[in-house]
Amino acid sequence: MPYMNVTEVESALIALAGAHPSICELITLPNPTIEGRTTHAVRLGTQAANTVDAYYLTGGVHAREWGSCEILVNLVTDLCDAYAGGTGVGYGGKYFSAAEVKALIQQINIIIFPCVNPDGRNYSQTTVPLWRKNRDTADSGGDPTKVGIDINRNQNFLWDFNTAFAPAAINVYLASSDPSQDTYHGHATQSEPETQNINYIHDTYTRIRWYVDVHSYSEDILYVWGDDESQYTDTNMNFQNAAYNGQRGVLGGSYKEYLPDGDLGALVGLANAFTKSLAEVRGKLYFAKPGFSLYATSGTNDDYAYSRHFADPSKSNALSFTVEWGTEFQPAWTEMQEIIKDVSAGLIGLGLEALGIDSFIVSNRDTFSSYEVETTLSYPNAFYVMYDGFAPGALGVPGASPTIQFLDGLMERQSARCPQRQPQSLWKIQVLQIPRSESRSPLKWTLPMEARSPQRRGKFTFRRVSLECRISR
């Protein structure tokens, strides 16, 4: 199919909500666009809004980046269809199991707003293909070259860039006060209905913990901050402190934006999960890096989303990113179809990492010693675990943590001590749950004595092993 027009994007969301009412809620945004269009988002999940954490994705902010809408509509479709059918989702060489889809839908809410700027998209698709902004004429003075505001420079984060940033940092990429420029930031912060609709979701869904704004292009995932380099030692050096006005945005300068060390580790881990899942689709390599490494920015959606918690600690701490897909704004549809697969896999991978889920399948190449069960990242389809000191009674006991359930299966003993290949009835691992004490720590778990026959030594290779794992923080 070709790229969707704005009517088709909205119709797709309405149809999905109608087809999957138990897991897909239609959200009608309250602010019509300048040209009178009503936009929609959807909330996926079995849990009621604001009872679990939420993962928020926006797209179509910049009019010419057509494929962002397609990525997000396709992602909604795939997740709804897979959950309803009890199946997994595959993209090229990357497969997410039915259990992983189930975890996303049942454990969090996923809020997806695919077409933030329909007026601009329509203008780009019908008149000026490389149009970027919305279609607000308020500051144009009747000049068609001065129509529009950049919805990714209109947020309340260092919006007054002429005051907040060093003179050496000010350029058209940062933001502009000239309506003829693509990065014109508007006459006031959050002045545009599209910006207000993005923020309506932030304000209405109060447990947003992860935010991704989908853009093109450069094949990157950018994490906050975008105004300057980050530091984690001086809490007073931050965007709210007017004492640092006129110093921000210079590489190697004296100012660096405060970013708590724990958040930095989480941001990097989530971004790497995105790139890893994406790469498994067809080998594409996206880079995870700070937004500032691209260029300094003011008033962006990701910086604003993350900054809300600093400005008001009662608001949720939303770890925030911008995805820059592809190598051009409007690739041929055949390539865009592949990009949809790439980025969809990356976004699901990020979501699973946010949940603390590394993998649900351990392949039958993994080995189980007589004293421990261990898998490493070097094994395909394996997760990395090391967890000491789990009591014998924990094995297969309902309610125990970790929880492992064994079913009948076949095992072949292979070791130097026991060269004979003697099939024995053993167990098929079905479910394992481990509370993760530290988000990045390796885990190991030990087989209790009851799980070993007296004569077992060496290593055993399980055949037909299926392991479902949920590692929860």
Fold and architecture overview:
This protein has about 475 residues and is of the alpha/beta class. The chain folds into two domains: about 5-355, 3-Layer(aba) Sandwich (Aminopeptidase), CATH 3.40.630; about 365-470, no CATH class. Helix content is about 25%, strand content about 20%. The chain is built from nine helices and 17 strands. The chain has helices at about 5-20, 65-85, 100-105, 120-125, 160-165, 195-205, 260-280, 300-310, 335-355, and strands at about 25-30, 40-45, 55-60, 90, 95, 110-115, 210-215, 220-225, 230, 255-260, 285-290, 320-325, 365-370, 405-415, 425-435, 460-465, 470. The strands form four sheets. It has an eight-stranded mixed sheet, sandwiched between helices. The longest helix has 23 residues, at about 335-355. The radius of gyration is 25 Å and the shape is globular. The relative contact order is 0.12. The model is unreliable at about 360-473 (pLDDT under 50).
What are the key terms here?
alpha/beta; Aminopeptidase; five-stranded mixed β-sheet
